[in-house]
Amino acid sequence: MGGVAVLAGGLSSIAQSAGPTKEVRLVAGPGRARVVPSPHPETAIWAYNGTAPGPEIRVRQGERLRVAVENRLQEETTIHWHGVRVPNAMDGVPHLTQKPIAPGESFTYEFTVPDAGTYWYHPHQRSLEQVERGLCGALVVEEPEPLQVDRDVTWVLDDWRLLKDASISGDFGNRMDAGMSGRIGNTVTVNGRVRETFGVRAGERIRLRLVNAANARIFGLEFEGHRVQIVALDGQPVEPHAPEGGRIVLGPAMRADLVIDMTGAPGARFRVMDTFYQDLEYRLLDLAYADAPLRERPLEAPLALPGNPLPEPDVGAAARHEVTFDGGMMSGMMGGMMQGMGRGHVWAVNGVSASGHVMDPMFALPQGQSCILALHNNTAWHHPIHLHGHSCRVISRNGEPTRHREWQDTVLMAPRERAEIAFVADNPGDWMLHCHILEHQAAGMMGVIRVEPPGTRT
Hints:
The protein is mainly beta. It folds into 3 domains: 12-142, Immunoglobulin-like (Sandwich), CATH 2.60.40.420; 151-289, Immunoglobulin-like, CATH 2.60.40; 315-452, Sandwich (Immunoglobulin-like). Helices cover 4% and strands 41% of the residues. It is built from 4 helices and 31 strands. The strands form 6 sheets. Strands 20, 21, 23, 25, 26, 27 and 29 form a 7-stranded mixed β-sheet that branches. A 6-stranded mixed β-sheet has the order 10-9-12-17-14-15, with no helix packed on it. Strand 25 and strand 26 form a beta hairpin. The two termini are 41 Å apart.
């Protein structure tokens, strides 16, 4: 596994570092896109700079990023920098960390990117509709010395619920989606379009960055005839390893960096299949080999990535907090049994169903405190649980230590599963902890954790 640096000052020592600044302008507004091929018409979408997904932002680790966002929508919006350990005021959570950007107004986000890896950006204002209509994009933070590969490629995976005229179905947040598996679309895209093929060459080595930008769909990708190595999860390096059962599983908002050596013959085709949902398997696209090889055999360069400067939690001295997720259809808990359920919300965290982003914190941690969150999924549904402002070590699942002790910011929990995650609360502020199935979050599955800087406790 790549080494992990332990920083006495935590995030602050990185945030104060001076480096070059990259400036980006994003305009959120209506647009049109060729989501599905002809003869279907184009789809009316919401987009950054006219494209869905929005422009891929690439910066170097330690670089400062300044993003001027202009809102040309007819409603408020924000941008959340998913997985990036940003200062609290830059986290993009409406009313909790910033005033939403009103129609016709602008806001500038500025922060230093402390960790290399694959991240993404999306709104946190009415995200169940704004993300579904196309507002998202990849953020890639390059290592000072990247892996030796022939191509570094990003696939933003998404799905859309389209009608026969290729328009987006307007049934956002309906009770069935909210209380069950979320809004699963009927059209799956890679980088905003339905794809038939992805061109490769024999002997080529590709770093493939996968981003799941779907509201609710869980992807389980299998690369027919190829040996895949996972080298990072949620942006953070992990010991290179083959995916369990040959399938890369990504819940909403999760990312995985893969290295794939193209060992097929020139002219061959191999399927990339999504097999997560039983009896609903489908072909995502084909790896289509060119007639001429790139080289006789793939590269033999090392695959391990250097560790990011994450503070290592002291598990022995960590504060421990239990976080329980309840609710959903078929749970017997609907109809006002928990605080907030009477407002039509069907999910709860520690017995409280959130309404909006501002709420009393579940608990507070002094800055620098190591913490273990014991997560309990007491529901019949999967939940990708995302903690803002931090990355966490996944140390156990159902009482068994994890094999790779992976760092993640979004932890996919199966029905009835339990998991323990550990982190250092080094980033002060109020931080969301929520399910990233966006319909679940909107229907109550959200809480807040407070990290208090020194001198604030009485």
